[in-house]
Design goal:
The protein is α/β, with parallel strands linked by helices. 40% of the residues lie in helices and 16% in strands. The strands form 2 sheets. The chain has a 6-stranded mixed β-sheet, sandwiched between helices. The chain has a 5-stranded mixed β-sheet with strand order 8-7-9-6-10, covered by helices on one side. Helix 10 packs across helix 12 and helix 11 packs across helix 12 (292-307). The longest helix has 20 residues, at 255-274. The protein is globular, with a radius of gyration of 20 Å. Residues 66-279 form the SsuA/THI5-like domain. Pfam families: NMT1. Residues 1-32 form the signal peptide.
């Protein structure tokens, strides 16, 4: 969860060449993989510190650590992975990105997104979503309040900071069309590496952000924003972002590992739901470069939204996958038929208590 929704542009662009790239990759067995380690489980038994043999397992993040990932860090810190016989290392993504690392088998698990998995599936890339990290889409278009952007109609005549992604353009057009607004009247500016706060002071009026991070940061900085959540304009845009992903081969070859990893991960996110302050401290301790005030405020806002109105953390609804897939097809964003039943599974979540 970066300061802006830059990940959208990056995620959509990798899928076109991914299928070809995978042909050149040698599938690994799900070992440590590449990237930079961010956290590692302690190889001690949870019941008294007695050493035991733990299985090394890696999970790769989508971006730098943030409150989307707190459940993973909590599962490490609280010994939930150890209880399942796992020593989990949390990695930051390499140059190819988390999805490529998971799809190729370089690592068994990673943080992904419904939109990128949808595109990957129609290209024959066997990514599978195992759990929704957050039940409802917390992203949307944000602008400083002095730009007077109160609805999609107000995008007209304004400068949008993005990365030229087809999905960005389609989402913006989709919600502007509902209000009879003309998307061609929006000036698109490439933000480059600038964050939201730098860009709106420099040359843009609005951008796509995750409220849980950038929106909270704006509040802490005393820089009020107007936030237009995309889910409020279409049920099809209330998709899962982010998700926990694996690949079909991992599920086929070692379903027990998938089950054990997801049981502990679920416990980590449930811990973060029930103990937001303590979970924030765990993330701060694991990643000391993060702003503690931002982490604590973000965690307080986000923790209830992990599970929200679902019966348990991680559950995914077929209609959410179907609706978003149909929307992508209607926007000519897919290059083939999408079978939502193969894109996700709830089978490896623990049984609800």
């Amino acid at each position: 969860m970066r300061s802006t929704h830059k990940g959208i542009g990056k995620r959509i662009k990798w899928t076109a060449p991914l299928a070809a790239l995978l042909l050149a990759l040698t599938a690994c067995s799900g070992g440590a993989g590449g990237g930079t380690p961010a956290a590692t489980g302690d190889p001690k038994a949870a019941d008294g510190g007695e050493a035991q043999t733990l299985r090394d397992v890696s999970v790769v993040l989508d971006w730098t650590p943030n409150t989307n990932h707190t459940g993973l860090y909590a599962a490490v810190d609280q010994g939930f992975y150890e209880q399942e016989g796992l020593k989990v290392t949390i990695l930051q993504p390499g140059a190819g990105g988390a999805d490529q690392m998971v799809a190729s088998g370089e690592v068994p698990f990673g943080i992904s997104y419904q939109e990128s998995i949808t595109q990957a599936r129609v290209q024959g890339v066997p990514l599978v979503s195992l759990a929704a990290v957050i039940q409802h889409n917390t992203s949307g278009f944000a602008a400083p309040t002095d730009r007077n952007i109160k609805s999609p109609k107000d995008f007209e005549g304004k400068r949008y900071g993005g990365w030229g992604s087809p999905v960005e353009a389609a989402v913006m057009k989709s919600i502007m069309d509902q209000e009879g607004a003309d998307v061609s009247k929006v000036e698109n500016i490439n933000m480059g590496d600038a964050d939201f706060f730098t860009a709106v002071k420099r040359d843009i009026d609005f951008a796509w952000i995750f409220y849980a991070w950038t929106g909270i940061e704006a509040k802490l900085r005393g820089e009020p924003i107007d936030m237009l959540y995309v889910k409020d304009y279409s049920d099809s845009l209330d998709y899962y972002t982010p998700v926990i992903a694996t690949n079909e081969k991992q599920i086929a070859d070692d379903p027990e590992l998938v089950k054990a990893f997801m049981k502990a991960t679920s416990e980590g996110y449930e811990y973060a739901i029930d103990h937001p302050a303590e979970a924030a401290d765990i993330l701060i301790q694991a990643v000391p470069d993060l702003d503690p005030e931002l982490v604590k405020a973000s965690q307080e806002w986000l923790s209830p939204k992990y599970r929200d109105d679902a019966d348990q953390w991680g559950m995914q609804k077929p209609e959410v996958w179907d609706n978003y897939g149909k929307w992508m097809s209607s926007q000519n964003l897919l290059e083939g038929e999408f079978d939502s039943t193969k894109a996700f599974t709830n089978d490896y979540l623990p049984t609800a208590k």
